TrEMBL record:
Name of the protein in question: DEAD/DEAH box helicase
Pfam (any one): DEAD
Sequence ranges assigned to domain Helicase ATP-binding in this UniProt record: 300-471
SMART domains: DEXDc (SM00487)
PROSITE patterns referenced in this protein's UniProt entry, alphabetically: HELICASE_ATP_BIND_1
Highest rank taxon of the organism: Bacteria
Keywords: ATP-binding, Helicase, Hydrolase, Nucleotide-binding
Any one Gene Ontology molecular-function term assigned to this protein's record: hydrolase activity
Length: 1137
């Protein structure tokens, strides 16, 4: 028997990189290349040698040494390394193994347990989630359910087995006497029952949080292991040993242990919320009972509400749970929570996740759905407990009323790395700086989350900025729940080769897809990039792997969809849709919004999801639901992925390494690549470049990108934009003038590179989109940083000094060039002086509210009277459902708006007025014309809606109060309807314009807000119409009823904690010994008292007559003959005889 030092020396040597001729890498390649246990004949020599016996021996040796080392309290890092290698070894032995391999189930259990003990519970889940009747013992089957966190089924299996006659002492004794069972089988049955009894105690501990149950579970396992050792039951021995450590480890990382107990003095609300939070997560279909290694440090810090957290975790490493823990702490102090997300689509996704956790706790969760400045948004910000908002909406709300977040105790900055030179990034940086500079900022915690925060000095700068220079470190953990491999798909003339790494020694499939396959596999049509990409994706999808194809330019996506449809139609590949009913609803919505022949709809019909930001929101919502439910095998997506949208896959394909002529940056690549390998689905993610020509050159560039994949540089957007402006003004000679900044402060065209001589000559500067964009962002900085827009010009220098104090911009410039800081401030001041000299307070307020640049703002200010009248007329028509009036008013408004460069169509059309009327009439896309939809999406749904909103918020900023509902016309324009009630229905989630228009036509409702909409939906009239199943129309009835059900489902019944008074025992029940017991109501409501291992010991004297039991258990203590009942569930329970 080795001592600890000897064990650690042995384990260190045995797990060293390259041991046994690179056995572990060879095992991965070997298992990837074989099929049904058969190894290909064209394998490289270093893999062709049979390694199965070597792997088995090595795996058990490492398992023994690692368990022994853990028993003796050895190095955690070394132990985790050992378990990880054991997981890899037994995974390799079972991956693509023969269907006749008898040890497949047992080895999978060892692999799953080993990964779990190494901290990779999600990988363990993925290993064991696929089942094909794998000859598991009852104990292994129970362990599998525990690892899968399917605790409902686990309880059923445990209770059925442990209470069956087959394992009762009487039956087993009788069988032994009658020679119906031999000693070996008897011991096997006892070991199964003992191990399952231990699991039953542990499962009950996860429900109740009672650690005495964990201790008893360990005691039972210790006795069982002793019996297995003495009886030489080898398989049982290994499984019981693994369970012993898995139970201990899982309890130590459980939420029961790691969620702080009573961190606040005399805060009984926290104690209650903690219980409700734990029960909510425990009760999910797949129970969520523990924290990952990436979350433990954050969990240890969440209870300190003054500890601002900067959290850098890879994609899928559990950032949302950290936000939830921080929110739980804040909510328990009677303060509210604000979550800021960069995209509207991400806001909706975040809302669903957060509501599922906090809805059962009784908290109201809502995104800001309405138009900026709308009363609905203001109400949501004031009344909801948790609010999800984009930076733009929050910024406007704060400008309108700074007190609106006075009682917000936590701000979560999701995707906190979005600091940079783009307009949205600039506004994000301004928002954060303003939050940090508020006088009440010490009363508000900030938690900044990101998948790609930088290392080193940039991260230190960001952390110091967010933490306002308080001592403390960021949480920067590279751990991710699955592993990743980077490889290559290369066209070989008549086939495509799949490499699992850079070289063949990492494993490959020589003829992954072929022009003439020998079986029914996908058939390669040509070596064109789209053909190779789509056919390869199909091969993976047919093997059960979800595939994501990343296309760096959104406009290229539909081309890939069209090729997929062609390949299906021409017989090269088969549709991926297994059950047409799965996509029927989404196809119907797509056909209505996009037209039957749209490439997105055609692709969806064969099982391909095309995802990019400009698709209609009702269709995107439905597509994202299909993606989250795993109904789409191949997804082709745009750079929206890099902004946090949660789309993941087992295989990620990169057909392009450039966006036009620009290389994809390492920071973007890292964020996209992180999507490969879904927790609880995949053991590993495969990231592949598709090389259809110049293979060696592409391989070299691909792996250079992989190696150079780095975190975001995270330089202040202020710094970057002002540098760009300084460089351009320097090139044009403007800054070489002695009076450069005075000249800039007094001349609009100076900023566009016009020298005094050119201005005097009357030369107009040529149009330059980049220059205009940079100046608009500079204007956003100026107006965003000057909190009081009525500031006098002479006070501007001190205002900027104070606003930028301790900013990210100041911190980084201080380290780069202090002299450059002076130039930066002069640029800001010159632009501010130009704006102040040419505007009054009202104009400045209007420009800031509209979110446009100085020049566009002046133009809109000049047109404001006419634009306001047109807006009022369009809102009035929208509220009345007056199509002609709405079209006329919006046309008049657009005629003027289109003279402002910001809102001008890039490709004007003389037919736009005809398309506007067709769109607002609710006509089908087939009638409007598919080719015209891009114009409608770009110029009506986006630019014109933005213009209407800009005009409206300008008026609000200047003190205007609407006499009617705000934003009615914009809602109609966005949704393609002519009636505000119809538009509200679509915005609320009804995915059909036809249904919304029919509903309004049939019932003539008068709701004007979401609350009134809810009351109307719940009315008797609408309930009766909905019951017909043919209303609004036969084709849309299902969409309508689903929408109505989901609308009400958002209002979840909150859970309650009931400490039920002592309940007397039934006269037939003998009082059990003190301790905690299960309560199991039968169908008649009779509550049976069971031990943790399901032995019935009696019943209560009263039964449940009404209500949902929820989580319920009984506690017997020495001070009373009857048990105390604790119950957590929705509503109340009614009791009776």
């Amino acid at each position: 028997m080795e001592n600890l030092e000897e064990l650690e020396t042995l384990l260190t040597a045995a797990t060293a990189t390259g041991i046994r001729g690179n056995l572990i890498p060879r095992a991965g390649a070997w298992s990837s290349m074989r099929q049904n246990g058969i190894f290909p004949g064209d394998a490289p020599a270093n893999l062709a040698v049979e390694i199965e016996a070597d792997l088995t021996e090595y795996g058990f040796n490492i398992l023994r040494a690692t368990l022994s080392c853990k028993d003796r309290g050895g190095s955690i890092g070394l132990i985790n390394r050992g378990f990880q290698i054991v997981g890899q070894v037994f995974e390799a032995l079972t991956t693509n193994s023969s269907s006749e391999f008898i040890e497949n189930g047992h080895y999978k259990m060892i692999s799953g347990c080993a990964y779990h003990l190494a901290g990779y519970s999600a990988m363990a889940y993925s290993i064991l989630s696929t089942r094909s009747d794998e000859n598991l013992t009852p104990l292994e089957a129970s362990l599998r359910l525990l690892i899968l966190r399917d605790l409902d089924q686990l309880r059923d299996v445990l209770q059925q087995y442990l209470t069956s006659d087959e394992v009762s002492d009487e039956v087993l004794s009788e069988k032994l006497l009658e020679n119906e069972i031999d000693d070996d089988e008897l011991i096997g049955t006892i070991l199964n029952a003992s191990g399952m009894k231990a699991i039953a105690y542990f499962e009950f501990a996860l429900e109740t949080g009672d650690d005495t149950l964990v201790i008893e579970s360990g005691r039972i396992l210790k006795s069982a292991i002793k019996l297995a050792t003495e009886a030489t039951h080898i398989n049982h021995y290994w499984i019981l040993r693994l369970i012993q450590h898995l139970v201990d480890d899982l309890w130590n990382v459980s939420l029961h242990v790691n969620l702080p107990q009573s961190p606040f003095d005399d805060n009984t609300k926290y104690d209650q919320l903690r219980q409700l939070f734990l029960t909510t997560l425990y009760s999910r279909k797949n129970a969520e009972v523990e924290l990952w290694p990436s979350q433990l440090e954050a969990a240890s810090r969440v209870s300190d509400l003054s500890d601002d957290l900067v959290v850098a975790l890879p994609t899928s490493a559990g950032k949302t749970r950290i936000a939830e823990l921080a929110a739980l702490m804040t909510l328990s102090t009677e303060k509210r929570v604000l979550i800021v997300t960069p995209l509207r689509a991400l806001s909706a996704q975040t809302e669903r996740t957060i509501r599922a956790t906090f809805g059962p706790l009784g908290f109201r969760v809502s995104s800001l759905y309405g138009a900026s400045g709308s009363s609905g948004d203001q109400d949501a910000l004031r009344t909801n407990d948790i609010i999800i908002s984009t930076p733009e909406k929050l910024d406007f709300a704060l400008r309108s009323d700074p007190t609106i977040i006075d009682d917000v105790g936590l701000v979560v900055l999701d995707e906190g790395h979005l600091i940079g030179p783009k307009d949205r990034e600039i506004r994000y940086e301004i928002l954060v700086q303003k939050l940090l500079k508020r006088t009440d900022s010490t009363n508000r915690r900030i938690v900044c989350l990101s998948a790609i925060l930088p290392e080193g000095e940039p991260l230190e700068d960001l952390t110091a900025w967010i933490r306002k220079d308080k001592d403390g470190t960021p949480i920067n953990i590279p751990w991710r729940p699955t592993r990743q491999r980077f490889g290559l798909l290369s066209y070989q003339g008549d086939s495509v080769k799949l490499n699992y790494g850079e070289l063949d020694r990492s494993g490959f499939i020589k003829r992954f897809i072929e022009i003439e396959p020998k079986d029914d596999s996908p058939k390669l049509r040509s070596g064109e990039l789209k053909d190779v990409t789509i056919t390869s994706a199909w091969k993976f999808a047919e093997d059960g792997k979800r595939v994501l194809i990343f296309i760096p330019v959104a406009n290229w996506i539909e081309g890939f969809g069209k090729v997929a449809v062609e390949l299906v139609n021409d017989g090269f590949i088969k549709p991926l849709v297994k059950d047409p009913k799965d996509i029927e609803r989404a196809v119907g919505i797509g056909e209505e919004w996009l037209g039957q022949d749209h490439p997105v709809v055609a692709a969806l019909k064969i099982g391909v999801g095309l995802h990019y930001a400009k698709l209609p929101n009702p269709f995107l919502r439905e597509l994202e639901l299909l993606l989250s439910n795993g109904k789409i095998g191949v997804t082709i997506a745009s750079p929206t992925l890099s902004q946090g949208l949660n789309i993941n896959a087992a295989v990620l394909l990169f057909p392009y390494l450039k966006r036009g002529t620009e290389k994809i940056e390492g920071e973007e690549f890292r964020n996209i690549a992180g999507r490969a390998g879904r927790a609880f689905v995949d053991v590993e993610g495969l990231v592949l470049h598709v090389a259809h020509n110049s293979i060696d050159w592409r391989r070299r560039n691909w792996f250079e990108l992989v190696q150079s994949s780095r975190a975001r540089d995270l330089q202040s957007g202020f710094l970057q934009v002002i540098n760009l402006i300084i460089n351009r003004l320097s090139r044009n000679g403007i800054l070489k003038q002695a009076d450069a900044f005075e000249y800039l402060a007094n001349n609009v065209n100076a900023w566009k590179g016009q020298t005094p001589r050119q201005v005097e000559a009357g030369n107009e500067p040529s149009a330059d989109y980049d220059t205009d964009a940079q100046l608009e962002m500079l204007d956003s900085m100026v107006l965003g940083l000057v909190e009081a827009l009525d500031t006098d010009r002479e006070d501007l220098p001190s205002i900027f000094d104070e606003a930028l104090k301790s900013s990210l911009w100041e911190r980084q410039l201080n380290k780069i060039d202090v002299e450059m800081m002076k130039t930066h401030k002069q640029i800001l001041l010159a632009r501010a002086n130009l704006i102040w000299a040419n505007t009054n307070l009202a104009t400045r307020k209007g420009i800031f509210a509209m979110g446009v640049g100085f020049e566009a703002g002046l133009k809109l200010d000049q047109l404001s009277q006419d634009l306001g009248a047109s807006l009022d007329a369009s809102d009035t028509a929208a509220l009345a459902g007056d199509l002609d009036g709405l079209v006329t008013a919006i046309t008049q408004l657009a005629d003027q708006i289109y003279t402002v460069s910001t809102f001008q169509p890039k490709k004007p059309s003389k037919h736009w007025k005809k398309w506007l009327k067709q769109w607002l009439s609710g006509l089908s896309i087939d009638t409007i014309g598919l080719k015209n939809m891009k114009y409608i999406e770009d110029n009506f749904v986006y630019k014109l809606v933005w213009a209407l909103e800009a005009i409206r918020v300008r008026r609000i900023a200047l003190g205007w109060e609407a006499e009617t509902v705000q934003g009615a016309a914009a809602a109609c324009l966005e949704t393609g309807t002519s009636n505000y009630q119809s538009a509200l229905l679509v915005r609320a989630g009804l995915p059909s314009r036809i249904a919304s228009l029919t509903v309004v036509s049939d019932t003539n409702p008068n709701f004007e807000s979401r609350s009134e909409l809810g009351e109307w939906l719940a009315s008797t009239e609408i309930a009766k119409l909905s019951e017909t199943n043919t209303w609004p129309t036969a084709e849309t009835a299902d969409l309508w009823n689903t929408f109505r059900d989901q609308y009400f489902r958002k209002e979840q019944r909150p859970l309650r904690i009931n400490q039920i008074a002592k309940r007397s025992l039934h006269p037939s029940t003998r009082r059990p010994s003190n301790g905690i017991y299960r309560l199991h109501p039968d169908r008649a409501g009779v509550c049976h008292i069971l031990t943790p291992s399901f032995e019935t010991v009696g019943r209560l004297n009263m039964r449940i007559t009404q209500g949902i039991p929820g989580s319920m258990y009984a506690l017997f203590t020495a001070d009373h003959p009857n048990p105390a009942i604790r119950r957590i569930g929705p509503g109340k329970l009614e009791w009776g005889k």
